[in-house]
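Entry
Fold in token form

___
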Amino acid sequence: MSFILDALPTTKEFFRDFWNKRPFVVRGMISKEIMGGLIDKDHLAGLSMEEEVESRLVRKGRKPNDWKCDYGPFQEKDFAELGEEDWSLLVQNTDKHHDETAELLKCFNFTPRWLLDDIMVSFSSKGGTVGAHIDSYHVFLVQGKGQRRWKVANEPVKNEDYINDISLKILKDSFEGEDITVTEGDVIYIPPQFAHQGVSLKPSLTYSVGFLGPSLSDMLTQFGQYIEENHPKIPRYLGQNLTESAVPFHVTQNHIDDLKFFMTEIFDQDYFNKWLTHYFCCPIQIYEDDYEDDTSVNVVNIIAESTMVIKRPAIKMFFTPLKASQTYCVSAGKLSFNLDFSDLFIVNMMAKETPFSAKIFINHAEILENLLEQNILSRCET
């Protein structure tokens, strides 16, 4: 099967043939309309000067040990000193700070949005690159203005070896792979652990849509904190099934199994399902000045007047069933609430990320009020 596809795979084909398995390229996958709204290089540079934004400047060295990486926030003089070639500016979480860039996410609704990490945007001068590397996440590389040449490995790297004594994780050795030159609107999918390297042939922008799975240690830590803060009355282990074999020092396999049951039983409860929606949806800090609070709105009037509202694309959303029949826990951003199955159409309307009437909240005015207050939904301009 060719590395370059004639069209985007169907969702079934994507998960069956490509997800975690092999990379591909689709020419012109992103429309000119969406590409035209994405953040440009000047606004990206301005974003990298903000204290709250995570950014990096990477400069390619003449020799392997000459690579340099500096971290923002930056100042105008930092860019004035860079020259015309061999550098890249990378800005994380651009979708959280630039709504038009977040619109790009709609093009990837065949993926599990709840695993979305962020949209990282990079601007590279001619020759700019971050070197050959591997990522622990799935990434779609959307080419913006300019032209970039990529090399993408044919198979995952099993034993990576990096250049010593530099702050970047750049692969020491070359790798076998496909070479491809991309222009505006082209998209490359790269699974985790597949080596890749991009070099700008002329000044260019790349929008990296990354999907990152959580680590087990982080999930266990975060779930433990959630239980401690929200359900402190969950009982301790009381050793109900212990026998005389437990004294004084011997822990038998039966005792181990009993402790495992005590630790894992909670995963079958609503505690875990509710926490899971919150874990995947709770956002990073967003600029406080980017969005005005909608705290003064009269939701009764908004519903009665069928005001059009819309969910911001940068807000992640997740719903999952609870133990009670036909009941679901919904999380959007930092907000969590329960809905009956008959009301899940509300979630479906928000998930479309297109304007819809607030009238659908006629029986859930409090939920609408919270969604507006937290800037998860916003009123459409008339």
